[in-house]
Design a protein that fits this description.
- The chain has helices at residues 4-21, 79-95, 109-119, 134-139, 147-150, 161-167, 200-212, 226-239, 256-270, 277-280, 283-291, 311-317, 351-361, 364-374, 381-384, 392-404, 414-430, 436-451, and strands at 29-40, 48-58, 65-69, 99-103, 126-130, 168-169, 172-173, 176-188, 297-301, 320-323, 335-343, 377-378, 405-407.
- With 453 residues, the protein is of the alpha+beta class.
- Helix 2 (79-95) packs antiparallel against helix 14, helix 8 (226-239) crosses helix 17 (414-430) and helix 17 packs antiparallel against helix 18 (436-451).
- The relative contact order is 0.17.
């Protein structure tokens, strides 16, 4: 994917627009004129040097900010990491605020924030955060209510409804959604002459046909990790009329609706229509059968161009297409939806610096580059109208997420509960002697007893 517009336009527009969009800290003076030479390194594109002289209002002695995110900024092969590194460089040059960056694994950010909230350690000033972690971190006292902090920003009123679902909890804003991403089912057109199956019954029918050809109907990750419920089991259970959590956030998965989904998945596995590695392997193992040509489809996500070799080329060639998730009793083709957000932790040392970071990132030219490099859909329409998103892939992805994307139900013990459910589901898939209703009830009771007293 080429972003020819973004290299020059981004830096020029950002540096000029940001000064007028950023809120004015008190006291604030025009400390200096910043003359910067920014070297932008883009994979698959040549290095471009842009020199621009701009006046940037900064505090006399701006304090540094500490930023947490998942990316290894030294990895020049990761376009998401390269993009974030570029934007940090531009942010520092534009605002005069030094960024102290710390890489934290994606599935460890929420845990680390909760632990620091309990121990009283030093928090970052702003952190990348998946929206599903918001309720549990609010419960842990780890997130700052930023409703007042951002209320006068020029972009907050432009945010999509998806941002509100992701970041507003119990009437208060705890984060800002940069983009939304979600699950996706990708299928090889040639393997489905009858069309992509969209019901559980059609999956069994097509699975039988493909098994005779030596292929699995699909492959995906559904192992011992909370993401297995988010990406695979949760949308299926929801589509069948079931729930993972009730209105209070307590586990509510031990129902006939969940049992029906388990029995269907068990039939797929027992008949050899899906590989056992879906349940025994890691994320990569859940994708490998498709990469190796042994599976006719793969459940990935809107982000999968970053992780599944060959997918982008096959999509661009028209050999692979985006399909609907199987619709159960509710008739809904649900897929997991998540907001990729920026949050300010409670007791952050420099909330003004964090606000400057948000103002920088939510400018449409910056947001467009950031979201497109992560293969997400930006939460501001002006950013989505950028040429980077002018492709069938983005149009179809945005349509699928808008029509079928659902956020996971909220819980103050979200990760702990989903981990327990994922383990129970894996055990049910690998041991056909276990009774689904009994095993699901046991897992549910254990979580409620341990966390919901």
């Amino acid at each position: 994917m080429k972003h020819k517009w973004s290299l020059v336009a981004l830096l020029m527009v950002v540096l000029l627009v940001l000064a007028s969009c950023a809120p004015a800290p008190t006291p604030q003076v025009i400390e200096k004129v910043v003359k910067e030479t920014v070297v932008v390194e883009k994979p698959v594109e040549k290095t471009v040097v842009v020199e621009k002289t701009v006046e940037v209002p900064v505090e006399a002695k701006p304090e540094p900010i500490t930023v947490w995110a998942r990316y290894d900024l030294s990895d020049t092969k990761d376009q998401a990491a390269v993009s974030l590194k570029q934007l940090i460089t531009s942010f520092e040059a534009t605002t005069g605020i030094k960024v102290n960056y710390e890489q934290v694994a994606w599935d460890q950010i929420a845990l680390k924030l909760a632990l620091i909230a309990q121990s009283g350690g030093e928090m970052p000033d702003i952190t990348e955060l998946g929206s599903q972690a918001v309720p549990q971190l609010v419960s842990a006292g780890a997130l700052m209510d930023i409703t007042e902090l951002v209320k006068d920003t020029p972009w907050v009123s432009q945010l999509s409804d998806a941002d509100a679902q992701a970041c507003i909890y119990q009437g208060k804003r705890y984060c800002v959604t940069a983009d939304v991403r979600g699950g996706a089912w990708y299928y090889n057109v040639a393997d489905f002459p009858n069309g992509w199956p969209t019901t559980p019954q059609d999956w069994l029918k097509e699975g039988e046909r493909l098994a005779k050809e030596g292929k699995y109907i699909s492959t995906f990750f559904a192992g011992r990790h909370y993401a297995a419920v988010e990406l695979t089991w949760g949308p299926w259970i929801r589509s069948n009329g079931g729930h993972v959590f009730d209105a209070e956030g307590k586990p509510a998965w031990a129902t006939p609706e969940t049992v029906e989904v388990v029995n269907w998945a068990r039939e797929l596995l027992s008949k050899g229509y899906i590989p056992e590695t879906c349940f025994t392997g890691d994320f990569t193992a859940g994708e490998t059968p498709w990469v190796d040509g042994k599976a006719a489809s793969v459940r990935g996500g809107s982000w999968s161009f970053l992780f599944i070799p060959g997918l982008k080329d096959k999509i661009n060639a028209g050999e692979t297409k985006l399909g609907l998730a199987p619709a159960f009793k509710e008739g809904k083709h649900y897929v997991f939806l998540v907001g990729e957000t920026w949050a300010v932790p409670k007791n952050a040392k420099n909330p003004k610096g964090a606000l400057a970071w948000l103002n920088f990132f939510m400018n449409p030219p910056v947001l467009a580059q950031y979201a497109s490099n992560m293969y997400g859909i930006p939460t501001i329409d002006e950013a989505f109208r950028a040429s980077a998103f002018d492709s069938d892939f983005y149009r179809e992805t945005a349509k699928n997420l808008a029509e079928n994307g659902v956020f996971m139900e909220q819980s103050p013990y979200y990760t702990e509960s989903l981990d327990a459910l994922a383990i129970a589901l894996q055990e049910l898939m690998l041991d056909p002697k276990l009774d689904p209703a009994t095993h699901l009830q046991q897992a549910q009771d254990e979580v409620i007893k341990r966390y919901f007293k």
